[in-house]
Amino acid sequence: MVWKPHVTVAAIIERDKRFLLVEEETPRGLQFNQPAGHFEKDEDLIAAVKREVYEETAWQFEPDYITSIQLWRKSPEHPTFLRVCFAGTCHSFNPNQALDDGIVATHWLTRDEIALQQARLRSPLVLIGIDEYLDGQRHPLSLLKSFLDLDYA
C-alpha cells in the first residue's frame, strides 16, 4: 500500500484585526477552522484555496502570499496532512451562496477570541497559522509552480 499525506489548503483572512473562521460540524462536535479543505484533481493550489473559501464562506478570496507549508499528524494512528496556508483578502460576498455541508456559520474573531476557543479548534494549525501571519511570515505565491498536463515530448 502506498502512503501519502492528505494535501489541504487553508486561508487566513484578516479584516479590522479579526479573522474569518468557519464553525463546522465534525465527529468531535462543532469546531472552528480557517476556511480550508482538500486539494482536488485538476486544480492548482491557488484555485483550490479560492474554491474552498467561496464554498465555505460565500466570499471571493484573493491570496496575496503563503504564510507556511505545514506538515501535521496528531499521532501515528491518525492521517498526515500537508497544508499550504495562504493569506489574503476577500471581497464580493454572495449572500445567496449556500455554504458547504457541515458549515453552520462564519465568524470574524480576534486572535484572543480564537485562543479562548482553543478546545474547539479543528486542529492546532488554526492558531499556529494565525500566529505565523501575525509574526509577519510572508512567502511569494511564485514559490508554487504548476505543471498540469505538461507534455514533455
What does this 3D model show about the protein?
- By secondary structure, the protein is of the alpha+beta class.
- It has a single domain, classed as Nucleoside Triphosphate Pyrophosphohydrolase (Alpha-Beta Complex), CATH 3.90.79.10.
- It is 19% helix and 39% strand.
- It has helices at residues 45-57, 111-116, 125-134; strands at 6-15, 18-26, 29-33, 36-38, 60-73, 80-91, 103-109.
- Strands 1, 2, 3, 4, 5, 6 and 7 form a 7-stranded mixed β-sheet that branches.
- The chain is globular.
- The model has no long low-confidence stretch (mean pLDDT 93).
By CATH, the architecture is named Alpha-Beta Complex
Parts with pLDDT < 50 across at least 5 consecutive residues:
none
Outline the biggest β-sheet. 7 strands, mixed
What is the fourth-level CATH superfamily?
Nucleoside Triphosphate Pyrophosphohydrolase
Query: What is the terminal separation in angstroms?
Result: 31 Å
The CATH topology turns out to be Nucleoside Triphosphate Pyrophosphohydrolase
For the secondary structure, the number of strands is 7
Structural class: alpha+beta
- pLDDT averaged over residues: 93
Helix content: 10-25%
Instruction: Tell the overall outline.
Output: globular
User: How many domains would you count in the coordinates?
Assistant: 1
What is the CATH class?
Alpha Beta
Number of helices: 3
Strand content: 35-45%
Helix and strand element order = EEEEHEEEHH
